[in-house]
C-alpha cells in the first residue's frame, strides 16, 4: 500500500512529499527544507519509519522546491532526477538565492533526467510521469492511479493554477497542458500541490476559475 507524508517548509510554505510502500523503499519530492530544524524534521521521519530513499525527484527547480536537494543527496546518497528542460532553472538558483533570503543555499547537480515517457519504480510501486509545462519549462507531474495520488507541483492548486510570470513560464501552455494531461486523469485522483491543501481532479474540472467549467477567462 502506497503511503504519503507531507511537510511544509521555508517561508514560501512549500510542500515536500515522501512516498513509500510496504517495502519501505521511498522517493522524496521537492525537498524545501532549508533551516536546520526543517532538515532534522525530515531526517527524523525517514529514520523513524525505517525508509530507504531510492530517488530524489524535482517536479521543477524553482528555489523553494530545491533548497534541500543538497542536504538529501549528502545524507542519503540518492540520485537527483529532473526534466532536462529544468537544467537552466536549477542552475540559476545560486544567482538569486541570497536575494531571497537563502545565503546558505547549496548547489545540487542532477544525476539523470526524466521525461514523460518514463516511469519511476521503487519497492512494489510504479509512478507514471506527465510533462505539464507552463509554470516552468520542464515541469513534471507524477501519479499512481490505483492509489489516487498525484504529485502536481506548482501546476494545479485548489482553486488556482501556477504563476506563469517567471522566466520560462507560459500561461497558454499551462492552461493547455492542465486540460490535456491533468484533466484526463480520473476525477477521484487526489492532487497534492506544491503549496496549500490537496484537491481533486474532479473538483478542479468543475470549479477551478482558470481552467474549470466555470473559468472566467
Structural key phrases:
217 residues, six-stranded mixed beta sheet, single chain, alpha/beta, Metallo-beta-lactamase, Chain A
What does this structure look like?
- The protein is an alpha/beta fold.
- The chain has one domain (3-207): Ribonuclease Z/Hydroxyacylglutathione hydrolase-like (Metallo-beta-lactamase, Chain A, 4-Layer Sandwich), CATH 3.60.15.
- Helices cover 25% and strands 28% of the residues.
- It contains six helices and 14 strands.
- It has helices at 36-49, 63-66, 69-76, 87-96, 171-182, 201-207, and strands at residues 3-9, 14-20, 25-29, 52-57, 80-82, 112-113, 119-122, 125-131, 140-144, 149-153, 156-157, 160-161, 190-193, 199-200.
- The strands form three sheets. A six-stranded mixed β-sheet has the order 1-2-3-4-5-6, covered by helices on one side.
- It is globular.
- It starts with a strand and ends in a 10-residue tail after the last helix.
- The model has no long low-confidence stretch (mean pLDDT 97).
Amino acid at each position: 500500500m502506497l503511503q504519503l507524508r507531507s511537510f511544509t517548509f521555508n517561508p514560501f510554505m512549500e510542500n515536500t512529499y515522501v512516498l513509500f510502500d510496504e517495502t519501505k523503499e521511498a522517493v522524496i519530492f521537492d525537498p524545501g527544507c532549508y533551516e536546520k530544524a526543517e532538515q532534522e524534521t525530515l531526517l527524523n521521519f525517514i529514520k523513524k519509519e525505517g525508509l530507504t530513499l531510492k530517488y530524489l525527484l524535482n517536479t521543477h527547480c524553482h528555489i523553494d522546491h530545491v533548497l534541500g536537494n543538497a542536504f538529501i543527496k549528502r545524507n542519503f546518497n540518492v540520485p537527483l532526477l529532473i526534466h532536462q528542460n529544468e537544467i537552466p532553472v536549477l542552475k540559476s538558483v545560486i544567482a538569486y538565492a541570497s536575494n531571497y533570503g537563502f545565503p546558505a543555499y547549496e548547489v545540487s547537480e542532477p544525476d539523470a533526467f526524466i521525461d514523460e515517457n518514463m516511469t519511476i519504480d521503487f519497492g512494489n510501486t510504479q509512478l507514471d510521469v506527465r510533462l505539464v509545462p507552463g509554470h516552468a519549462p520542464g515541469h513534471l507531474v507524477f501519479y499512481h492511479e490505483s492509489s489516487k495520488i498525484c504529485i502536481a507541483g506548482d501546476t494545479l492548486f485548489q482553486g488556482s493554477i501556477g504563476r506563469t510570470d517567471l522566466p520560462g513560464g507560459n500561461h497558454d501552455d499551462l492552461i493547455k497542458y492542465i486540460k490535456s494531461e491533468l484533466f484526463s486523469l480520473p476525477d477521484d485522483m487526489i492532487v497534492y500541490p506544491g503549496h496549500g491543501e490537496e484537491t481533486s481532479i474532479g473538483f478542479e474540472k468543475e470549479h477551478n476559475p482558470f481552467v474549470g467549467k466555470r473559468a472566467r477567462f
